[in-house]
Amino acid sequence: MTYWKLLNFELRRLALPLGILAVITTALQVYNAYSQANKSIDYAHRIMKKEHLSTMEQYANEHGYFSYSKSFDELNWLILSIFICAAFIGFYFVFIWYRDSVGRHPFMTRLLMLPASRRNLYWAKLTAPLLVMIALLALQQLLLPVGDSIYRSIVPSEVREDVPLQMLILINPALNILLSPSIVDLLLYYGTGITAVIVLYTGILLERSYRWYGILVGLVYAAVAIFVVMIPLIILQSDYRYTMMDSQLTVFYFILLAAVSGISVWYSQYLLAKKFTI
What we know:
Layout (H helix, E strand, L loop, with lengths): L2 H49 L4 H8 L13 H22 L8 H6 L5 H37 L10 H7 L1 H6 L4 H28 L1 H18 L1 H6 L9 H30 L3
Helix pairs in contact: 1-3, 1-5, 3-5, 8-9, 8-11
């Protein structure tokens, strides 16, 4: 079986969870924009009644403007929706290897007996959750202008301060990581994340191959991998930080990520081909 058929198989398994996450995310973020807008209007009406103000312009002159951006630097439904998606993706990166290994007749046995390289199985299980993550990020990018439009439709322009969507992303720490406007930052964040997943897969395959001994080896392997990729940060905090420019440290970090990922992929495929047991 080819990689593409295995990938299609894994994506079909993820279709329902992806649909549910998309509905939950959309509902929570639409509700967040609606509730934030109504909260702003209700607050303005209470102040206007208390201070005997007759128009929204008077309120704005006395108390300033409302902005959708103010809801991006606090815990709300938007942050909850992001957390739910992140938690599911993180859980699924582990679950994807154990789901087929339970029961009296594990499905993983049939997968391993397919007339195809086990390398294809590894890449399918790695890329399928990543593609779902990309789909959710694309949905998040689409929901930002939707939420902003809902907020604008409810809050009058007289008391509303419009903020560019890019500024909304910069204000929120989570969105600033997930949808960073800087290409270098995006590569850093997602490169680190993908490397972490690859190292996690190596740890899981070590556990599946050697059981309790594999858990110990996997923890040691993960610790070594973390130490290696943190070398640029250690240099940055040491007296040697002046010997390298920031750009050089960034390139060095990417090289270490590539090295750790490459070694982990090679070792994982070796384990899957030679040592993996149900």
